[in-house]
Design goal:
Layout lengths: L3 H23 L16 E6 L4 E9 L6 E5 L4 H4 L5 E2 L3 E3 L2 E8 L10 E8 L10 E12 L4 E6 L3 E4 L4 E9 H5 L11 E10 L7 E4 L9 E6 L9 E2 L3 E3 L2 E8 L10 E8 L10 E11 L6 E13 L4 E8 H5 L11 E14 L1
Antiparallel strand pairs: 1-2, 2-9, 3-12, 4-6, 5-6, 6-7, 7-11, 8-9, 8-10, 8-12, 13-22, 14-22, 15-17, 16-17, 17-18, 18-21, 19-20, 19-22
């Protein structure tokens, strides 16, 4: 049996050794800079972007930025001079002019303790009215000790007249920047760079307009074709305007090639379609009617027809009435050898680039 004093001394010694081991193993291990293998230098860090919670790709590389580089001397004097925002000179990439915007004390309403850096289009007045494109960009921070670059790259971004500035509100922590061993602020010099790659797309933009039908008197037109039985060739109306488009009617009294000597063939021609863009089209419903002595009386109607008029398909035809029906006196379709034609046109949909 051990003496009480010896047991007490041994207990204290063991307890001290256990505490020493726990304390030593809990201390953070020192990281030797430059010892990370190249394959492990790329990492994904979750940060807040302007609008979305998204991941930012951060990696190191030796090659310098392809499009822009700026060196800021005496960087720490920005806040002392009350300069909260600095815009760099312009540079060109992908056919557009850009600049970096640096917030030395962080962008307004962004998390404190960080420097914010953004990429912005520098000139938009010369761009088309509805300009828009996507781009992938990288902002570089030069390590002046290891002579390489820390690269910050986000997801593909959409630039337009509403949103023409994207970047990183938490670009780098101020404490990390001021760490002498970091290499990012040496002799108070701060070096940034940028690369911008605009994604060229062959996007087609279409605008579709659905139109309200006008009153009946604004969408109908009437013709009285006299001495109808003496017509040998096509009867063609004058051009007329309806729903903002120019039209004309073509009537073949003895049929065309598709119904020769069998039926009267009527064509509705959209004259305006000859000037349509290749992707422009107009959806139209129309009726062709044979009227009696009074315009108010319809004696023959083939019903509604529908057609998409385009630059390559500007006509729609119907085999209107058989010649035997038309010339049968019992039917009374020809009154005093007059063919009273009416067309009703309703433009419903306009699709254009």
């Amino acid at each position: 049996m051990k003496p009480p004093l010896l047991s007490c001394v041994l207990g204290i010694a063991v307890s001290s050794w256990i505490c020493f081991k726990l304390f030593h193993e809990s201390k953070p291990k020192k990281i030797v800079r430059g010892s990370v293998p190249a394959a492990e230098r790329t990492m994904r860090l979750p940060i807040y972007d302007d609008d979305n919670d998204e991941e930012l790709i951060v990696e190191t590389r030796d090659a310098s930025p392809a499009h822009f580089l700026t060196k800021i001397e005496s960087f720490s004097l920005f806040p002392k001079h009350w300069i909260v925002k600095y815009e760099t000179c312009e540079f060109e990439a992908g056919g557009y002019k850009w600049r970096l915007i640096i917030y030395p004390s962080g962008r307004p309403y962004s998390p404190s303790g960080y420097i914010s850096v953004y990429l912005s289009l520098a000139e938009t007045s010369s761009l088309p009215v509805d300009w828009e494109f996507n781009a992938i960009f990288t902002i570089f921070l030069y390590n002046q000790i290891s002579d390489n670059y820390l690269c910050f790259r986000g997801n593909e971004r959409r630039f337009n007249k509403i949103k023409f500035e994207w970047g990183f509100p938490k670009f780098i922590n101020k404490k990390s920047l001021k760490d002498e061993l970091s290499g990012y602020l040496v002799d108070d010099n701060f070096v940034l760079g940028a690369e911008v790659f605009v994604l060229k797309t062959q996007r087609v933009i279409e605008c579709v307009t659905l139109l309200k039908p006008p009153s009946i008197d604004l969408r109908t037109r009437d013709w009285k074709i006299s001495e109808f039985s003496k017509l040998e060739n096509a009867w063609i109306s004058d051009e007329f305007t309806m729903s903002g488009f120019n039209w004309k009617m073509e009537l073949y009294p003895k049929g065309d090639f598709s119904s020769k000597d069998r039926a009267v063939t009527i064509y509705l021609v959209c004259v305006s379609a000859g000037n349509f863009d290749a992707r422009q089209k107009v959806k139209t419903e129309f009726y062709t009617r044979l009227k009696g002595k009074s315009v108010a009386t319809t004696i023959y109607d083939v019903g509604k027809l529908s057609h998409w008029f385009t630059s390559s398909n500007a006509t729609c035809w119907t085999s209107f009435i058989s010649l035997s029906e038309l010339h049968n006196p019992k039917n009374g379709f020809l009154v005093d050898d007059c063919f009273n034609l009416q067309v009703e046109i309703c433009v419903q949909v306009l699709s254009r680039p």
